[in-house]
Amino acid sequence: MQNGTTGWCIAATLALAAASHAQPLQWRTIALSGQPAPGLPAVTFENLTDVRITPDAATIAFRANLIGTGVVTDTDGTIWSLTSGSSTPSLRYREGTPAPGTAAATLAGIPTVNLAPDGFLGFAAGLYEGSPASTATNIAYYIESAPGTLTLIAREPLNSFLLSNHVPLNSSHSTVWTQSGVVQTPAGPVVGTTTPVPWDPTATFRVFSQAQLGPDSEVVLRAGYGATATTSSWQYALLTNSPTLAARATSGAPVPGMNATWRDIGTAPVIAPGGQIAVWGRVTPTGSATPIQGLFYSEAAALAPLVLEGDPVPGVPGATFTTFDPALSMNDDGRVAFIARFTGPGVTTNLDNSGVFIAQDGQPTRLVMRRSESISGAPGVTLRQPTPPAHQGNVIAFIAYTSGGPATGSPQLLIAGDHRVRPQAVITSGTPFQIPGGATKTVRAIAFSSEPAFTGRSQIAGRELLVKLSFTDATHGLFAVTLPCIADFNGDGDIGTDQDIESFFACLAGNCCPTCGTADFNADGDFGTDQDIEAFFRLLGGGC
After folding, report:
1. Could you give the CA distance from residue 312 to residue 51 in angstroms, rounded to a whole number?
2. DSSP single-letter state for residue 193
3. 470 pairs with which residues across the strands?
4. pLDDT at position 202, please?
5. Who's near 322: CB < 8 A, 6+ residues apart?
6. Which positions ≥6 away from 137 have C-beta within 8 Å?
7. More confidently predicted of 307 and 85
């Protein structure tokens, strides 16, 4: 730690006065079921889904089914957007209208929507030609080339339904899809079943996982390859196309940084804006017949271990990791958020043997929240089962099933906050919620996506989160919630106390409590500097 901490300690008393009260959550309504659909007389929103937001929070998009005068099955699906400063959504696209780029086709079905970082839209659509609608149908991909102008990217042959509804959409308005055995982008094919396997001329590419797309149009995916069509003989590789087609890992090859070879590579790699890749995998240590699993990471070359089965668990003395959830989330800085299970002294299976963690190459892995742990902002409630987290910037958010508290059964809870301090309870099912400017209703279910911004399906922008809340009266709505800046560094539920300051400086000295935040408080990769202290006290004083 650098010199200069004394002055900051003295400043603590002044900062505490400004931080004596926690800032409230700020909610706003995007759309409600039963609400009139703007510009469509006697028509209302029936079902609202797939709400998205751009990284600068300037544009929100969502999909809606309509009901009302003149609405039929072939015209009820719509896409809407809402720009910053406006409270009224605008209709962008609707089923039953002409399909751009075709001679006589009509948009027959719009199952979802994607939103590029600059606010451009993209989606998969069912098309039909002729009347009735069942005459000849297929699936196509559309991306806006300008606001309100759709470009046809791909279309299947008639009566073919192999294209996925998954249309990632990055800042370059690019996407990636698999069609007729070829992984495609608008710029051309990436790899296909006729592409030679560079490292094995006797083999042929046989199968590809769903490709993931980076912000600069990098593609990453797992490929199966083999000399015959017998699936049990196939090997696997993690492929990228930046700058050319190459393998970051292949079955049986050595694993950099450890005495082991690759046994299996996960089907769900993630890619960050800087080109960093992370993926679940299994490797076989030399001299052992038993593989171990872990999470692996790559900047620009071969995948190397990030955290492994058997590694010590931070904050749980004597415990070691056993398994990892393959669903990962990686922020712009390459920090990976994940769920893992562990065992060790005092750890009870199915009680407190799992948690949410953050790992970063070259830095210690950190426990964010442990199963059976109390949750700040939800008195008497403990974490029972988290779902895969979203992680963008310094915000981490996830849906969890919980135990205790006033809600009965196994309630859902949205937990979110700055990962450098302590995530908080945002909203719980089974509890009352006052719709901004409207009635108070009881929450039945919460829907939140963990997708990153460069997939086109993000629900985080800075401290703003988008959620869908379903209520016990069979209505629902889409809402935005702005997270407060909370200086609960030690995670005890009390905001900006002497204990938070003591815990922060203890963490700077290398003694972080299990529920504490990180000593790299300004998230620049340097731990325990004057800049970290400045950032901490700025937050403590009410600044974000």
Report:
1. 39
2. T
3. 445, 476
4. 94
5. 309, 340, 341, 342, 343
6. 108, 126, 127, 128, 129, 158, 159, 161
7. 307
What CA–CA distance (Å, rounded) separates 272 from 278?
Answer: 9
The whole-angstrom separation of Cα 49 and Cα 51 is 6
Q: Please choose, from the candidates 526, 538, 536, the residue with its C-alpha nearest in 3D space to the C-alpha of residue 505.
A: 536
Q: Which two tokens stand for residue 364?
A: 């210690």
Handedness of CA 381, 463, 315, 285 (dihedral sign): positive
User: Is the separation of the CB atoms in 244 and 233 below 8 Å?
Assistant: no
Residue 335 DSSP SS3: coil
Of residues 338, 332, 263, the one with CA closest to residue 303: 263
| Percent above pLDDT 70 for the chain | 93
DSSP secondary structure string, 497-517?
-HHHHHHHHHHHTT---TT--
Tokens of 344: 């060790």
Q: Which two tokens stand for residue 281?
A: 């995998």
Which residues on neighbouring strands pair with residue 213, listed in sequence order? 219
- Please state, rounded to an integer, the average pLDDT across all residues of the chain: 88
CA separation for the pair 441, 27 (Å, rounded): 14
Query: 396: which strand partners?
Result: 391, 417
**pLDDT value at residue 13:** 39
Position of tokens 């010590």? Answer: 312
Task: Give the integer Cα–Cα distance in Å for 314 and 4.
Answer: 29
Please state, in angstroms and rounded to a whole number, the distance separating the CA atoms of residues 278 and 359.
11
CA 452 from chain center: how many Å?
A: 4
> Tell me, what DSSP letter sits at residue 156?
P
DSSP 362: T
Got the DSSP string for 222-275?
EEEEESSS-GGG-EEEEEE-SSS-EEEEETTSBPTTSSEEEEEE-S--EE-TTS
Cα 514 to Cα 346: distance, rounded to the nearest angstrom:
15
Q: Where are the domains of the chain?
A: 193-372
What is the rounded distance in angstroms from the CA atom of residue 469 to the CA atom of residue 445? 6
Report the distance separating Cα 256 and Cα 386, nearest Å: 31
**Distance, CA of 483 to CA of 164 (rounded, Å):** 34
Report the first-to-last Cα separation within the chain, whole angstroms.
Answer: 23
pLDDT in tens, 353-368: 999 999 988 888 989 9
The answer to whether the CB of 263 falls within 8 A of the CB of 215 is no
Q: Is the CA virtual torsion 164, 168, 173, 175 positive or negative?
A: negative
Rg (CA), the chain: 25
Q: How far apart are CA 528 and CA 490, in angstroms?
A: 16
Least confidently predicted of 13-27, 179-193, 295-309: 13-27
As given in the structure block, the two tokens for residue 456 are 């086109």
Is pLDDT at 67 greater than 70 in this prediction?
A: yes
Closest C-alpha to 460, from 389, 543, 412:
389
CB 345 within 8 A of CB 353: no
| Three-state secondary structure call for residue 127 | strand
Q: pLDDT band at 459, cuts 50/70/90?
A: very high
User: What's the CA gap between 16 and 23, in Å, rounded?
Assistant: 14
Question: Which of 313-322, 429-438, 508-517 shows the lowest mean pLDDT across its residues?
Answer: 508-517
